[in-house]
Amino acid sequence: MKTRTGYSSLQILLHWATALLVVFNWFYSDGMGRALRVHMDGVASTRPSSMNPDIHVWTGLAVLALVLLRLALRAVQGTPPAVGDGWMRRAATWAHRLLYVLLLATPLLGAATWFGGLKALGDLHELAANTLLGVAGAHAAVALWHHYVLHDRVLTRMVRPE
Fold it and tell me: pTM of the predicted model, to two decimals?
Protein backbone atom coordinates (compact mmCIF):
# COMPACT_ATOMS: atom_id res chain seq x y z
CA MET A 1 0.00 0.00 0.00
CA LYS A 2 1.24 3.46 -0.88
CA THR A 3 1.84 6.09 1.76
CA ARG A 4 0.38 9.56 1.29
CA THR A 5 0.41 12.78 3.29
CA GLY A 6 -3.39 13.07 3.23
CA TYR A 7 -6.55 11.54 1.81
CA SER A 8 -7.96 12.14 -1.67
CA SER A 9 -11.28 13.89 -2.28
CA LEU A 10 -12.88 10.55 -3.14
CA GLN A 11 -11.53 8.90 0.03
CA ILE A 12 -12.93 11.76 2.11
CA LEU A 13 -16.30 11.61 0.37
CA LEU A 14 -16.55 7.84 0.89
CA HIS A 15 -15.54 8.17 4.55
CA TRP A 16 -18.27 10.70 5.36
CA ALA A 17 -20.90 8.97 3.21
CA THR A 18 -20.18 5.70 5.02
CA ALA A 19 -20.35 7.41 8.41
CA LEU A 20 -23.68 9.06 7.60
CA LEU A 21 -25.23 5.84 6.31
CA VAL A 22 -24.03 3.85 9.34
CA VAL A 23 -25.50 6.39 11.78
CA PHE A 24 -28.74 6.65 9.78
CA ASN A 25 -29.15 2.88 9.66
CA TRP A 26 -28.46 2.47 13.36
CA PHE A 27 -31.22 4.93 14.21
CA TYR A 28 -33.52 3.50 11.53
CA SER A 29 -33.18 -0.07 12.84
CA ASP A 30 -35.97 0.21 15.39
CA GLY A 31 -38.59 -2.34 14.39
CA MET A 32 -36.29 -4.56 12.33
CA GLY A 33 -36.73 -7.48 14.73
CA ARG A 34 -40.47 -7.52 14.07
CA ALA A 35 -39.88 -6.93 10.36
CA LEU A 36 -37.50 -9.90 10.27
CA ARG A 37 -40.06 -12.16 11.93
CA VAL A 38 -42.69 -11.07 9.39
CA HIS A 39 -40.17 -11.53 6.55
CA MET A 40 -39.11 -15.00 7.74
CA ASP A 41 -42.59 -16.27 8.56
CA GLY A 42 -44.15 -14.77 5.45
CA VAL A 43 -47.08 -13.53 7.51
CA ALA A 44 -48.31 -9.98 7.32
CA SER A 45 -47.86 -7.97 10.49
CA THR A 46 -50.99 -7.17 12.43
CA ARG A 47 -49.40 -4.02 13.86
CA PRO A 48 -48.60 -1.15 11.54
CA SER A 49 -44.95 -0.16 11.44
CA SER A 50 -43.57 3.32 10.92
CA MET A 51 -40.49 1.95 9.21
CA ASN A 52 -39.86 0.33 5.88
CA PRO A 53 -37.41 -2.55 6.42
CA ASP A 54 -36.25 -2.36 2.79
CA ILE A 55 -34.68 1.04 3.53
CA HIS A 56 -32.62 -0.48 6.35
CA VAL A 57 -31.60 -3.50 4.26
CA TRP A 58 -30.59 -1.53 1.16
CA THR A 59 -28.80 1.12 3.20
CA GLY A 60 -26.79 -1.67 4.81
CA LEU A 61 -25.89 -3.05 1.39
CA ALA A 62 -24.87 0.47 0.33
CA VAL A 63 -22.56 0.62 3.37
CA LEU A 64 -21.02 -2.69 2.32
CA ALA A 65 -20.48 -1.45 -1.24
CA LEU A 66 -18.91 1.81 -0.02
CA VAL A 67 -16.58 -0.05 2.35
CA LEU A 68 -15.44 -2.39 -0.42
CA LEU A 69 -14.81 0.64 -2.63
CA ARG A 70 -12.91 2.33 0.21
CA LEU A 71 -10.70 -0.73 0.66
CA ALA A 72 -9.96 -0.88 -3.07
CA LEU A 73 -9.16 2.82 -3.08
CA ARG A 74 -6.84 2.39 -0.07
CA ALA A 75 -4.97 -0.33 -1.96
CA VAL A 76 -4.60 1.87 -5.06
CA GLN A 77 -4.14 5.35 -3.60
CA GLY A 78 -2.64 4.53 -0.22
CA THR A 79 -3.25 6.31 3.06
CA PRO A 80 -1.33 8.66 5.31
CA PRO A 81 0.62 6.94 8.08
CA ALA A 82 -0.80 6.77 11.58
CA VAL A 83 0.46 9.59 13.75
CA GLY A 84 2.48 9.26 16.92
CA ASP A 85 4.98 6.69 18.02
CA GLY A 86 4.79 3.40 19.82
CA TRP A 87 1.47 2.65 21.48
CA MET A 88 -0.36 5.55 19.81
CA ARG A 89 0.56 4.36 16.31
CA ARG A 90 -0.33 0.74 17.16
CA ALA A 91 -3.65 1.81 18.71
CA ALA A 92 -4.54 3.82 15.58
CA THR A 93 -3.63 0.93 13.29
CA TRP A 94 -5.65 -1.62 15.28
CA ALA A 95 -8.62 0.73 15.75
CA HIS A 96 -8.85 1.24 11.99
CA ARG A 97 -8.59 -2.50 11.41
CA LEU A 98 -11.39 -3.08 13.92
CA LEU A 99 -13.54 -0.43 12.22
CA TYR A 100 -13.09 -2.09 8.84
CA VAL A 101 -13.86 -5.56 10.26
CA LEU A 102 -17.06 -4.20 11.81
CA LEU A 103 -17.94 -2.22 8.67
CA LEU A 104 -17.73 -5.45 6.68
CA ALA A 105 -19.14 -7.88 9.25
CA THR A 106 -22.22 -5.85 10.20
CA PRO A 107 -23.82 -5.65 6.73
CA LEU A 108 -22.68 -9.17 5.84
CA LEU A 109 -24.36 -10.55 8.96
CA GLY A 110 -27.47 -8.50 8.19
CA ALA A 111 -27.55 -9.75 4.60
CA ALA A 112 -27.08 -13.36 5.70
CA THR A 113 -29.95 -12.91 8.14
CA TRP A 114 -32.34 -11.15 5.74
CA PHE A 115 -31.54 -12.80 2.40
CA GLY A 116 -30.11 -16.10 3.63
CA GLY A 117 -32.83 -16.75 6.17
CA LEU A 118 -30.25 -17.28 8.92
CA LYS A 119 -32.39 -15.88 11.72
CA ALA A 120 -29.84 -16.86 14.38
CA LEU A 121 -27.38 -14.31 12.97
CA GLY A 122 -29.79 -11.44 13.65
CA ASP A 123 -28.61 -11.05 17.24
CA LEU A 124 -24.98 -11.13 16.12
CA HIS A 125 -25.77 -8.48 13.48
CA GLU A 126 -27.33 -6.30 16.18
CA LEU A 127 -24.31 -6.77 18.46
CA ALA A 128 -21.92 -5.93 15.61
CA ALA A 129 -23.94 -2.81 14.74
CA ASN A 130 -23.93 -1.58 18.34
CA THR A 131 -20.21 -2.29 18.64
CA LEU A 132 -19.58 -0.49 15.33
CA LEU A 133 -21.39 2.60 16.53
CA GLY A 134 -19.44 2.58 19.80
CA VAL A 135 -16.07 2.13 18.09
CA ALA A 136 -16.95 4.79 15.49
CA GLY A 137 -17.95 7.17 18.29
CA ALA A 138 -14.62 6.55 20.03
CA HIS A 139 -12.88 7.08 16.66
CA ALA A 140 -14.60 10.47 16.32
CA ALA A 141 -13.76 11.43 19.91
CA VAL A 142 -10.09 10.59 19.39
CA ALA A 143 -10.05 12.64 16.16
CA LEU A 144 -11.46 15.60 18.09
CA TRP A 145 -8.87 15.05 20.85
CA HIS A 146 -6.12 15.12 18.24
CA HIS A 147 -7.52 18.34 16.81
CA TYR A 148 -8.28 20.31 19.98
CA VAL A 149 -5.75 18.91 22.48
CA LEU A 150 -2.79 17.71 20.45
CA HIS A 151 -3.28 20.31 17.69
CA ASP A 152 -2.06 17.95 14.98
CA ARG A 153 -3.42 17.40 11.47
CA VAL A 154 -5.26 14.11 12.03
CA LEU A 155 -8.77 15.56 11.73
CA THR A 156 -7.97 17.98 8.93
CA ARG A 157 -6.64 15.10 6.81
CA MET A 158 -10.22 13.80 6.63
CA VAL A 159 -11.68 17.20 5.78
CA ARG A 160 -9.25 18.67 3.24
CA PRO A 161 -7.95 16.57 0.36
CA GLU A 162 -4.25 16.36 -0.41
Answer: 0.91
| pLDDT tens for each residue of 85-115 | 899 899 999 999 999 999 999 999 999 999 9
The DSSP 8-state label assigned to residue 80 in this structure reads: P
| Distance between start and end Cα atoms, the chain | 17
Is there a domain that residue 22 lies in?
A: yes
Side-chain-facing half-sphere of 44: CA atoms under 13 Å: 2
Per-residue pLDDT band for 4 (boundaries 50, 70, 90) equals: confident
Q: How many helices (H) and strands (E) does the chain have?
A: 6, 0
Spell 97-135 as b/e; 16+ CB within 10 A means b.
eebeebbbbbbbbbbbbbeeeeeebbebbbebbeebbeb
According to DSSP, residue 159 is labeled: T
Assigned domain for 115 exists = yes
Euclidean distance between CA atoms 38 and 46, whole angstroms? 10
52 falls within a domain: yes
Residue 47 near residue 54, CB atoms below 8 Å: no
Residue 2 lies in a domain: no
What domain range is 51 assigned to? 9-157
